Amino acid sequence: MHRLFIPPQQLASPRVKLTAEQARYLGTVLRLRPGEEIEVFDGEGARFRAWLEDSPELDAAVLRLDEPLSEGPARAVDVTLVQALAKGEKMDLVVQKATELGAMRIVPLASERAVVKVDSERGSAKAERWRKVAQEAARQSGRADVPKIDEPASWDAVLALLAGEPSRRGLLLDPGQTGLRLGQAARGARRVLIAVGPEGGFSPEERERAVRGGMLPVALGPLVLRTETAGLAALAVVLHVHGELG
Fold first, then answer.
1. pLDDT of residue 60
2. How far apart are CA 116 and CA 104, in angstroms?
3. Is there a single domain that holds both residue 57 and residue 84?
């Protein structure tokens, strides 16, 4: 069944007036006809059956909501992925695939060695773009929720986030770590934060600061992975040890 993301504030009535963009997507991209069924999800976990009503104009299209659909099984683990900013379209890729894999929150990190530097205005614009990427990835993958996408954050914000959630286990991917593996460190933790460095890795100062902030340095494996690969591989490992993947 085709799916459409509609934010909660737009679902106040059983008859939902679509935006021009939503209407064009249903009519032009999906080529739906009046009376055809579609699944609507609100990005917060709710799903509904809906039908496209007849309308004289595409931009005035309306969906009629039916009963809510059942919720999926409860997640075994809640993962926040802190991903150092990467150049080009690599962040788009990370957001898309992390959403498909089930990340609950994605925090772009302005680390010291990140090639990409953004000011607050560009950071807001990029975050809005990443939210749209996440919405589309959630639609495609069958998720009813959409991960929270933060604007680019500093280490201060990341460590404050971790301090504010004492039950969340902070794990710092560290290629120099030879003892503790990610899978071992993630076992038994229902809430996990994984921090992934840029291509040049975290600086010694960043690593020391993260450890002082309560994070555990962990190894992912013997291979050297690109930053956009490392975060997704780490997310898959954590889901696997909690029985959600593989």
1. 67
2. 24
3. no
The Cα 35–Cα 53 span in angstroms is 6
Question: Minimal CA–CA distance to 97: which of 40, 138, 44?
Answer: 138
Which pLDDT tens digit goes with each residue over 166-196? 999 999 999 888 789 999 999 999 999 999 9
With beta carbons less than 8 A apart as the criterion, state whether 3 and 41 touch.
Answer: yes
Residue 172's domain comprises 78-241
Helices (H), the chain: 20-24, 90-101, 120-141, 155-163, 182-186, 204-212, 227-241
- Tokens 């004492």, residue located: 166
Rounded distance between C-alpha atoms, residue 233 and residue 223, angstroms: 12
Q: What is the structure's pLDDT at 148?
A: 97
How crowded is residue 235: how many other Cβ atoms within 10 Å of its Cβ? 26
Q: Is residue 202 part of a domain?
A: yes
- Position 58 pLDDT exceeds 60: no
**pLDDT, tens digit, 9 for 90 and up, residues 143-166:** 999 999 999 999 999 999 999 999
| Phi then psi dihedrals of residue 176, to 5 deg | -85, -5
Last residue of a domain, one of 24, 49, 68: 68
